[in-house]
Amino acid sequence: MKKLFSSSQIEIYKPEFSQMEIPLAGIVAAGPFTNVDDFVSERIDLNRLLIKHPEATFYAKVKGSSMNEDFSEGDLLVVDKAEEWSHGRIALCYLDGEFTVKRIEIEKGVCRLMPSNPQFEPITITSENTLVVWGIILYSIRRHN
Predict the structure, then answer these.
(1) What structural domains does the chain harbor?
(2) Active site residues
C-alpha cells in the first residue's frame, strides 16, 4: 500500500492491485472444532471481494476513539469514493480542513456527523462549515489478538 496522506486523525493509502488468492473455508460455525482442510472448496481474491471501484477505492487506518463502537484504533477501512452517501452510512469526511470518520445523520433538513462513542458530541453541519463526503466506508479489517 502506498501512503497518500497522514495526520493525527487518519492515514490514507492507495491499494496495490495484484492477484493473491487465498483458500475460502466456506461457512464455519463458531462452535466445536472441525478440520478446515476438509472443507476448502475454492479460492478467493480479497481485492475482488472488497473492492468494487478500483480507481475510487482507498484504505484508511483508524486513529482515535470517536467511532469505537464501530472501529478500533488501527483498524483498516475500505473507503469507496464512488459510493453514494446517505443517512445512516459511515463516511470518511473532510470537514473544515481535517479528515474524520463519522456516521451521517440527516433529520428534518439538518445534517449531523455522529460519533459512535457516547463520550464525543455529534457535529451539526451549518453554513459556516465546509464538508466534503470523501468516501463511504464499506468494510473494516481488524486484527484480533
Answers:
(1) 2-17+39-141 (2.10.109.10)
(2) 66, 102
Query: Residues near 112 by Cβ (< 8 Å), separated by ≥ 6?
Result: 104, 105, 106, 122, 123, 124, 125
Identify the residue whose cell numbers are 433529520.
107
Q: Which three cell numbers stand for residue 26?
A: 466456506
Helices assigned H by DSSP within 66-123: none
Distance in Å from the first CA to the final CA of the chain:
23
Q: What is the pLDDT of residues 100-112, one digit of tens each?
A: 999 999 999 999 9
**CA 133 to CA 144: how far, in whole Å?**
29
- Contact criterion met (CB below 8 Å) for 139 and 57: no
Do 49 and 34 meet the contact criterion of CB atoms below 8 Å apart?
no
Contacting residues for 12 by C-beta, under 8 A, at least 6 apart: 3, 4, 5, 6, 58, 59, 60, 79, 92, 99
Question: Distance (Å, rounded) from C-alpha 101 to C-alpha 68?
Answer: 11
Full-model pTM: 0.76
C-alpha cell at 106: 440527516
